[in-house]
Design brief:
Elements (H helix, E strand, L loop, with lengths): L3 E9 L3 H12 L5 E4 L5 E7 L5 H9 L6 E9 L4 H8 L4 E3 L3 E4 L11 E4 L12 H13 L6 E5 L5 H8 L4 E6 L2 H15 L5 E5 L12 E7 L2 H13 L1 E13 L3 H10 L3 E8 L2 E7 L1
Parallel strand pairs: 6-7, 8-9, 8-11, 9-10, 11-12
Antiparallel strand pairs: 1-3, 1-4, 2-3, 5-6, 12-14, 13-14
Length: 286
């Protein structure tokens, strides 16, 4: 069964920054979905039942770099139709940059757009609603170099970036995802959008999956978090062609210097930065 733990946090004083930082820390402990209160006074987070650990929750709370009193309660959630849950609660159709409509198969009122992406997210991350996913989509839309490219999408989640890359004309896309359920979800979403004969291969694994790849990337995408990106960026660089670009996100504007230092050590040069709601993306060239 696709069982989860639902963890409800209260944050005092209310702080949207504390919510974001707590979500970032929890993401490193395998939490997949977050529902913050608009005023930052509370947040609900979901983690697969097998990954729930009270010590990890305590460590995430203790890691907050800003003063906040955080309490939490956890409850077991039996596996259910997560598409229905998203439909009832918060997944609504959106249009990114006026060019990409993102919606689920249960939506009927979908705005027309140049590219239409169907995402049935279940509990996997990446519907385009989060600022970092939008930043990564914009990097593909604005890059102008996707047609005919070999693309690696590290931490593909729902597969949304891999699907967009294919729609923009990528020749080959390797979509890597460490979580088995998310990888299966990505496979389903690829089929929903592109059928059985797409250029996308979904690979279950972490950055070590890059070591055995024959084809090197023209475009490398990694929307994960700061710690994983900085730990694995040497492997990212090794999997890229000379002159290829790497776009990363999943971290805050304040983290740019740390990411830039790791990229420089991997032989990458900063090309551009972008931000959305205090989240950042950075693009580097090999």
């Amino acid at each position: 069964m696709n069982d989860y733990y639902k963890v409800d946090f209260t944050i005092s004083p209310a702080s949207t920054d504390a919510c974001d930082l707590l979500a970032d820390a929890l993401a490193e402990a395998s939490y997949e979905s977050f529902e913050p209160a608009d005023d930052g006074s509370a947040m609900t987070a979901y983690v697969p039942a097998g990954d729930f650990n009270e010590d990890a929750v305590a460590e995430a709370i203790e890691s907050l770099p800003i003063p906040a009193e955080v309490t939490h309660t956890a409850s077991f959630v039996e596996g259910r139709d997560w598409n229905s849950e998203w439909e009832k609660n918060y997944f609504k159709p959106i249009v990114v940059a006026g060019r990409v409509a993102v919606h689920s198969s249960f939506h009927t009122d979908v705005p027309p757009a140049e590219h239409d992406i169907v995402i049935d997210p279940r509990m996997a991350f990446g519907t385009g609603h989060h600022a970092t996913t939008t930043l990564m989509m914009l990097s593909l839309l604005d890059g102008g170099d996707t047609a005919g490219a070999t693309v690696i999408d590290m931490g593909t989640g729902t597969g949304i970036l891999a699907i967009l890359a294919a729609m923009l004309g990528a020749k080959e896309v390797k979509a890597i995802e460490i979580d088995p359920f998310a990888a299966a979800n990505a496979v389903d979403n690829v089929k929903l959008n592109l059928g059985d004969n797409s250029c996308i291969e979904v690979i279950e694994g972490d950055a070590s999956a890059l070591d055995g790849m024959d084809a090197k990337a023209d475009i490398f995408l990694a929307n994960i978090n700061r710690n994983i990106i900085t730990a694995d960026i040497q492997r990212y660089a090794a999997a890229m062609k000379q002159g290829a670009r790497l776009t990363v996100s999943g971290f805050y504007v304040a983290d740019r210097e740390v990411v830039a230092e790791a990229a420089k050590a991997a032989g990458l040069s900063l090309r551009s930065v972008a931000e959305n709601d205090n989240w950042s993306s950075m693009t580097f060239t090999k």
